[in-house]
Amino acid sequence: MTHDSRVTHEVRQGTFSSRGQRFAYTIHGSGSRPLVYLPGLLLPARMNTPLAEHLAERGNMVILLDPLGQGGSSRPREAWRYSMSQFAMDVAALLDHLDIERAVVGGTSMGANITLELAALAPHRLRGMVLEMPVLDNALVATVSAFTPLLVAMTTGEPLMGALSRLARLVPSKLIPLPLDALLDTVRQDPGPSGALLTGTFFGRTAPPRDQRQTFTAPSLVIGHHRDPIHPFSDAGMLSRELPNGRLVEASSILEMRFHPGRLLGEIERFLDQVWGPGERLVGARGPGGGARAAVRRARGRPVASTRRGAVPGPRRPR
């Protein structure tokens, strides 16, 4: 799927401040079903524009956030500013900024790990989680092997990478497919802050530990695929078994969501319908054989808050 400029839903862009830094986001659609979706490491939020457009056309309000050091957000050069737990704090700050009490939160690769950190930090802000290609225990060796040369290039080789980034900026975005254009952003960006981002994320924890993950009761859709050592299917399967309300969906490859996403977007649609279904919420009951089953219980729904000037319609956070 490529980006379709002929969208019929509302698209808005905005910024907010967290930890003294500026963050950029784009909202597709409106309503009382917010989904915050986060990109992978070094990638811009617009990599998920096709997903946002598709889900917004079906009644969801999809918020694409650029984490610190990526896309249109601030890019400080201090490595200590970058960590998964701090990224999760920024997502909570985004919800506060938009006056949203609870949302479904998800993301790709690093975005999935940030979502898990938000579940550890503020589980009451989560209505559900969409965890695409999580990077956990079984990815350690491959991740270090793949990103260490890039880290060295971004730091020790910063002058050379700076020249390469200037060349990459000459490539017009409209001439190449969106997934490839988003990937090229890893080279377009100033290498100094990118090196700090890699350093900070490498030397902090990548995700909450297993015993903590087993306490996350939010309904969760885990998407994984085979033949990818950085995002091993064993990590996705392990996570889906750990989460009390986890369900695993197998993608055909790492390319399916980016180039042929119809089936996976259908899975996400059904998950969101289940999570936001009228008067329903999921409570955990682990099934036999390591899988996760969810029992559906009726609960009284909350009315949708009216829109205030400068606020986004959606579930309100308590004052």
Task: List segments where confidence is low: pLDDT < 50 over at least 5 consecutive residues.
Answer: 1-5, 279-314
Q: What's the β-strand tally?
A: 10
How many domains?
1
CATH architecture level-2 label: 3-Layer(aba) Sandwich
CATH fold descriptor: Rossmann fold
Q: Strand count, sense and closure of the main sheet?
A: 8 strands, mixed
Rounded to the nearest angstrom, the distance between the terminal CA atoms is: 41 Å
Summarize the structure.
With 319 residues, the protein is α/β, with parallel strands linked by helices. It contains 11 helices and 10 strands. The radius of gyration is 19 Å and the shape is globular.
Describe this protein with a few key phrases.
319 residues; 8-stranded mixed beta sheet; 11 helices; alpha/beta; 20% strand; single chain; Rossmann fold; two-stranded antiparallel sheet; globular
Question: Could you walk me through the main structural features you see in this protein, from its secondary elements to its overall organization?
Answer:
The chain is α/β, with parallel strands linked by helices. The protein has one domain (11-277): 3-Layer(aba) Sandwich (Rossmann fold), CATH 3.40.50. It is built from 11 helices and 10 strands. It has helices at residues 49-56, 84-97, 110-121, 140-155, 158-168, 178-188, 191-202, 210-213, 233-242, 256-259, 262-275; strands at 11-18, 21-28, 34-38, 61-65, 103-108, 126-132, 220-224, 246-250, 280-286, 292-298. The chain has an 8-stranded mixed β-sheet with strand order 1-2-4-3-5-6-7-8, with helices on both faces. Strand 7 (220-224), helix 9 (233-242) and strand 8 (246-250) form a beta-alpha-beta unit. Helix 2 packs across helix 3 (110-121), helix 4 packs antiparallel against helix 7 and helix 5 (158-168) runs antiparallel to helix 6 (178-188). The longest helix is centred in the middle third of the chain and has 16 residues, at 140-155. The radius of gyration is 19 Å and the shape is globular. It starts with 10 loop residues before the first strand and ends in a 21-residue tail after the last strand.
